[in-house]
Amino acid sequence: MTAPRPIHGLSEISDRYDVLLCDVWGVIHNGREHFPDACAALARFRDERGPVVLISNSPKPRPAVVEQMDSLGVPRAAWSALVTSGDATRALLGARAPGPAWAIGPERDGVLYEGLGLEFAGPEAAAFIACTGPYDDEVETPEDYRDRLAAAAARGLEMVCANPDIVVQRGDKLVYCGGALAQLYEALGGTVFMAGKPHPPIYDLSVAEAARLAGGPVARERILCVGDGMATDVMGANAQALDVLFIASGIHGADAVGEGGLDAAAVETLLAENGASAAWAAAHLVW
Hints:
Blueprint: E1 5-6, E2 19-22, H1 36-48, E3 52-56, H2 62-71, E4 81-84, H3 85-94, E5 101-104, E6 128-131, H4 146-154, E7 158-161, E8 167-170, E9 173-176, H5 178-187, E10 191-194, H6 200-214, E11 223-227, H7 230-239, E12 243-247, H8 253-256, E13 257-258, E14 261-262, H9 264-274, E15 280-282
Parallel strand pairs: 1-15, 2-3, 2-11, 3-4, 5-6, 6-7, 7-10, 11-12, 12-15
Antiparallel strand pairs: 8-9, 13-14
């Protein structure tokens, strides 16, 4: 497996690509504040090269994520379009209406279910599980759900998980996401369906959106994925045969970035341990 080439900034490789599919959390913001240099790099690529499609594992549909990015100061000039796991998941949920669904997740994620005709119930009466994440990701871990999930798996309930991320960086803290609960549910014998990264539906939507913005199909070798999640961004791009720029300072920052910047050897080890590959690696997304 070829080691990724370390780069300092996007400008070193921008002429190779016509479209960016860029992750959000950990790359352009951390849930508390936006990263100005990353946003400036995306804005410059969009201005000089082509569309920037943000591809997020947020369980919320597009409008709610745009509102969040606006509140964090992410400039609209930094992106051309946004596709979310919530967008891709709504079809899976709508096909199971009226349910009822056992909805695991905070109240703020309720927008995911609007207009789908779903009914809701507790785990004992539900026909399937709809998971966006823990009810309280500031304090809860997957182990808090083990007994309830084990009982649901024994009943043969399917889970639709709207956010495949295992963890995400919020400020300087890592918090558990829906993918961590889905991972436990599968370990308990349950069946899980997901549409976000690294699964194909969200990439199908994103590539179609890029083609719409570009005015026609874009050669896959001219599309670059940018992300910080090994199991989602990198392995999702690998499965789609798309080049990827790994941003080491996100959720793997403790292992992949040192005092001197990018730890290329650590990144190579991290990729090898996950059976993944990346064309490029950088400490942060900058121009």
